[in-house]
């Protein structure tokens, strides 16, 4: 039977996901067969597994750090907010319907316990260590009786708990003490240690607070993790966009503007564009801020019609059309692709009570929402048209589809790509459209910019258009290589920040078996 360790937080956004990622990589480096788990996740950034299931992005990242292919059993319940206090509920990778928050908590949540237990039982048999992430806080007294993400799961997995507090936001000591005070005695006993996260400054100045916390709570502080930069770990929560980059870059940096839709999803699509030092990705959500970027991206959205209405209300529709008329590249992904078309129809009320709305009209295409959801990994070939895609004709790319609509283009429309494989099935499907000039591109493929050859060609084509010298990307690390480097650097930082002997004692396993050398990490 596997051992388990669970990370719970004094609140949301204290860094549980990143710390769980670090533990997955640390245990992997130390010779353990480790698997991540989060019983219930709420996020709009999701991912599609090899078998076409949908799961939260954080557990995908943790699976990669653990050296595993992502599987929906790592995140059996996924909630994707649709607005109006309701969410699409996805169980073991498949949508079961849209349910109001009240109905979910009062009627549905506890029904999922058997599903959660079955996943845990399977992992207990297959792995050495299960790294479990909680959700929000375990001390939400109004939700506690029906909570299926925190203490109930810790008991089901027989997992000791580390309580994580974010000291950067202030009030960390009070949040730890208050959280413990609101827990039942048996739950207090299950918490075996405290982790202070995101600390800035001289740790010696924090020592009196650590001494007080340990004396007052009778719980050891397992570690103090510094606030660090320069390690890129993909975020799944839109909280990451609460303070997005909004300023126009200076110098030779490309300016890529992403429209910050209210219901934006899968914003990790753009991470690869900003990590090579060639471009800055900024977010635009107010009129008058779009300016004249080198490229505009309209991202995915959980509710295309409502976000199209928001674009009309803000006046951003006219600004996007204006930059397109100036020959600036406009690229729409998934819901953003649907927005680029002439019309979006939802006669069955799949996403919205509004049956039809006009799109931007930049692509000759009409979208109809359908109840059946497409979730598949996809392998495709670029068809090639225009200055950005023409030289890429025949290039093989990988991506994934998550959408609930079908888009039908005119017979004269130029296709973006030809999908040749969905999951394990061979297909022959045209996806996306490119306008006559090749300057407006739309596609359902998420993850398209993770393809190194396409991304490098795109960035250099934009640079040439701006009058800049192209970059030699021949020696640049791939997206996959950069992820591995970042997971190792994260593991190094966290390993040096925790009392590892105490951690292994809490988990109940022996120390490192064959910890490999990892790259040297500079001081955070």
From TrEMBL:
Domain CobQ/CobB/MinD/ParA nucleotide binding: 5-232
Pfam family for this entry, one: GATase_3
Pathway(s) the chain acts in: Cofactor biosynthesis; adenosylcobalamin biosynthesis
PROSITE patterns referenced in this protein's UniProt entry, alphabetically: GATASE_COBBQ
Domain CobB/CobQ-like glutamine amidotransferase: residue ranges: 255-452
Keyword Metal-binding attached: no
Keywords recorded for this protein, A-Z: Cobalamin biosynthesis, Glutamine amidotransferase
Residue ranges of coiled coil: none
UniProt superkingdom: Bacteria
Any single biological process term in GO: cobalamin biosynthetic process
A molecular function GO annotation: catalytic activity
HAMAP family per record: CobQ
Protein name per Swiss-Prot or TrEMBL: Cobyric acid synthase
Organism listed in the record: Heliobacterium mobile
Lineage of producing organism: Bacteria, Bacillati, Bacillota, Clostridia, Eubacteriales
């Amino acid at each position: 039977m596997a051992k388990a360790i669970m990370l719970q937080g004094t609140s949301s956004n204290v860094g549980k996901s990143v710390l769980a990622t670090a533990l997955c990589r640390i245990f992997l480096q130390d010779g353990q067969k480790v698997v991540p788990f989060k019983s219930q996740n709420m996020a709009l950034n999701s991912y599609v597994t090899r078998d076409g299931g949908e799961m939260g992005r954080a557990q995908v990242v943790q699976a990669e750090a653990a050296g595993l292919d992502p599987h929906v059993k790592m995140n059996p319940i996924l909630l994707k907010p649709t607005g109006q206090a309701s969410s699409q509920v996805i169980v073991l990778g498949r949508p079961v319907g849209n349910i109001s928050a009240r109905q979910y908590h009062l009627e549905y949540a506890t029904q999922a316990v058997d599903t959660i237990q079955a996943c845990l039982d399977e992992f207990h048999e297959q792995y050495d260590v299960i790294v479990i992430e909680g959700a929000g806080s375990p001390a939400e007294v109004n939700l506690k009786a029906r909570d299926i993400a925190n203490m109930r799961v810790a008991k089901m997995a027989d997992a000791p708990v580390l309580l994580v507090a974010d000291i950067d936001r202030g009030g960390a000591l009070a949040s730890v003490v208050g959280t413990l005070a609101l827990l039942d005695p048996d739950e207090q006993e299950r918490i075996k240690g405290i982790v202070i996260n995101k600390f800035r400054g001289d740790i010696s100045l924090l020592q009196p607070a650590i001494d007080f916390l340990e004396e007052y709570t009778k719980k050891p502080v397992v570690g103090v993790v510094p606030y660090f930069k320069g390690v890129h770990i993909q975020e799944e929560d839109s909280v990451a966009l609460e303070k997005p980059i909004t300023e126009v870059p200076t110098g030779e940096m490309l300016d890529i503007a992403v429209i910050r839709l209210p219901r934006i999803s899968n914003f990790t699509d753009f991470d690869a564009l900003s990590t090579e030092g060639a471009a800055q990705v900024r977010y635009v959500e107010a009129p008058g801020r779009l300016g004249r970027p080198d490229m505009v991206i309209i991202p995915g959205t959980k509710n295309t019609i409502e976000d199209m209405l928001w674009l009309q209300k803000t006046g951003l529709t006219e600004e996007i059309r204006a930059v397109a008329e100036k020959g600036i590249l406009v690229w729409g992904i998934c819901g953003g692709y649907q927005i680029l078309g002439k019309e979006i129809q939802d006669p069955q009320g799949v996403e919205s009570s509004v049956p039809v709305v006009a799109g931007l009209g930049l692509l000759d295409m009409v979208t109809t929402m359908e109840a059946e959801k497409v979730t598949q990994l996809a392998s495709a070939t670029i068809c090639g048209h225009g200055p950005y895609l023409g030289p890429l004709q025949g290039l093989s790319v990988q991506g994934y589809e998550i959408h609930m609509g079908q888009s039908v283009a005119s017979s004269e429309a130029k296709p973006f790509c030809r999908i040749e494989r969905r999951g394990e099935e061979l297909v022959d499907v045209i996806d996306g459209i490119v306008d006559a000039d090749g300057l407006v591109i739309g596609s359902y493929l998420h993850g398209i910019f993770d393809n190194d050859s396409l991304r490098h060609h795109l960035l250099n084509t934009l640079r040439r258009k701006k009058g800049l010298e192209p970059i030699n990307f021949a020696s640049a690390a791939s997206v996959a290589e950069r992820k591995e480097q970042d997971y190792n650097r994260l593991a190094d930082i966290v390993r040096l920040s925790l009392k590892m002997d105490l951690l292994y004692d809490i988990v109940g396993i022996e120390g490192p078996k064959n910890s490999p050398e990892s790259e040297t990490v500079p001081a955070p």
